[in-house]
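Structure (tokenized):
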């Protein structure tokens, strides 16, 4: 046994049945279900997380994103989140909830641990190379999400801009933009939230999106949710990079958004054609000067460490059936594509574990 109670096969390689990469909503859900099926953390499975503390990507969210502004945070399996103060930052509320969850179910998350690569090993095992050594595993649950891969579009003249450029991943809250002229790029939930906050303190704001924003009125029930998930799922089945569920549901037409539209804050402009040293310009000659360009342009799946397994399809994504990678049944992706929502992540964790248990039962588990 090594320091973590994990059996070693020599040369610093530790043998486990399952490695879970990522301890956000999807990773913790998977770990919970692994425990429920009788697997023991640090003996049969390990959970690896690169973040400094519990909370998944939530711990990196800006302070002005209070818990009351979070849309549809679904509780982790087996433990409700109750009594949360909606005025507190979501990073604190959810960070504390995840901490309590890990402790209650004794999930023993290893952190901070960086995973550099997953490769083919010997005897049908996968080798997971990490900053704390190498694991040889019979199955892998990848729950790395998207926060570590912010997407930055490229436009002519971008490098000449003399102001500040930043991404949602680095958004500090509205205070830093007081008295500045700000261009917000992106038509999703984050872009509109940033814009509405910044407009309260900025000298001026300009909203730019590639497509006309689609607003959603009325309730968003189970039927609509399933239809949205099905659209994302179809892309994943075809081996295309997944879109977020939010991208196909539209923006909920809340009272705050209605008010912002009436005041002209959400007056949308088409995408500019180039960036100048002092702002942006359109092909028709129109220009807007700015001190800041904020790119609320989304994220991509953080799956580069899986590259040695060659799971990607020609379309650029990993083809998935349920949660299982079509090219390798030992690999399951949770929080990917249709399971990227909080409720989807919970269901995906349970589904992945059910399939992995069947995989492990095909051959006797080695005596420990």
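Design, position by position:
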């Amino acid at each position: 046994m090594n320091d973590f109670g994990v059996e070693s096969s020599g040369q610093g390689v530790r043998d486990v049945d399952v490695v879970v990469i990522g301890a956000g909503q999807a990773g913790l859900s998977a770990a919970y279900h692994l425990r429920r099926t009788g697997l023991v953390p640090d003996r049969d499975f390990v959970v690896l997380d690169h973040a400094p503390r519990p909370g998944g990507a939530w711990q990196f969210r800006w302070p002005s994103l209070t818990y009351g502004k979070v849309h549809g945070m679904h509780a982790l399996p087996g433990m409700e989140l109750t009594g949360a103060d909606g005025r507190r930052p979501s990073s604190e509320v959810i960070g504390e909830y995840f901490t309590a969850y890990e402790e209650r179910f004794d999930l023993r998350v290893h952190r901070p641990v960086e995973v550099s690569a997953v490769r083919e090993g010997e005897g049908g095992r996968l080798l997971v190379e990490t900053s704390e050594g190498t694991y040889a595993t019979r199955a892998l649950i990848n729950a790395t999400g998207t926060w570590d891969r912010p997407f930055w579009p490229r436009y002519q003249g971008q490098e000449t801009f003399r102001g500040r450029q930043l991404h949602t991943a680095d958004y500090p809250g509205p205070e830093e933009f007081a008295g500045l002229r700000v261009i917000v790029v992106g038509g999703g939930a984050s872009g509109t939230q940033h814009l509405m906050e910044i407009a309260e303190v900025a000298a001026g704001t300009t909203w730019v999106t590639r497509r006309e924003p689609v607003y959603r009125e009325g309730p968003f029930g189970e039927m609509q949710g399933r239809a949205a998930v099905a659209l994302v799922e179809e892309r994943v089945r075809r081996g295309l990079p997944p879109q977020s569920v939010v991208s196909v549901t539209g923006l909920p037409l809340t009272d705050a958004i209605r008010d912002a539209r009436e005041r002209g804050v959400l007056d949308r402009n088409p995408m500019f054609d180039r960036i100048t040293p002092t702002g942006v310009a359109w092909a028709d000659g129109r220009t807007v000067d700015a001190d800041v360009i904020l790119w609320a342009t989304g994220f991509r799946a953080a799956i580069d460490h899986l590259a040695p397994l060659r799971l990607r399809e020609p379309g650029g994504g990993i083809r998935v059936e349920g949660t299982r990678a079509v090219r390798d049944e030992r690999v399951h992706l949770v929080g990917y594509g249709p399971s990227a929502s909080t409720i989807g992540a919970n269901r995906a964790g349970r589904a992945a574990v059910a399939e992995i248990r069947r995989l492990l039962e095909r051959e006797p588990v080695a005596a420990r």
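Reviewer-requested clarification: Residues 1-5 have pLDDT under 50 and may be disordered. Helices lie at 25-36, 90-104, 189-198, 222-237, 246-249, 255-262, 342-360.
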